Amino acid sequence: MKDKGYILIIVLLFFLGVVSGMIVQQHKVIEVNNINKVYKEEIGKRLDEIKKVKMENSSFRVIIGAQTEVMKKAIKEIELRQAEALFFKQKYEAAVSKLSI
């Protein structure tokens, strides 16, 4: 009977050790899951920031493209005005040369 008591105590201690080990392991798993959640949230925030920067870059490219088109039109307009001014200058010089002769 005494042997059965010792065996029972040993079995109970073994199960107590197994259960306490499982509890400790479960706490470690929960802690790791919490850390993973924090990392996932941080990664999500950074991805959102990256998407925002990409959208800003796209908007910036559109704005630059539009400004480039405006500048090209302005340059063409300036060249046209310069050609007109040169034409009228030549007409003026021709008229002045006729008057002085």
Distance between the termini: 148 Å
Strand tally: 0
pLDDT averaged residue by residue:
89
Shape: rod-shaped
Strand content bin: under 5%
Number of contiguous helices: 1
Helix content: over 70%
Please write the string of helix (H) and strand (E) elements: H
Low-confidence stretches: none
Mind telling me the C-alpha Rg?
43 Å
Q: What kind of sheet is the major sheet?
A: none
User: Structural class of the helices, strands and pairings?
Assistant: mainly alpha
Key structural traits:
rod-shaped, 101 residues, mainly alpha, 1 helix
Structure in a nutshell:
This protein has 101 residues and is an all-alpha fold. Helix content is 98%, strand content 0%.
What does this structure look like?
The protein has 101 residues and is an all-alpha fold. The chain has 1 helix and no strands. It starts with a helix and ends with a helix. The model has no long low-confidence stretch (mean pLDDT 89).
Secondary structure layout:
Layout: H1 2-100
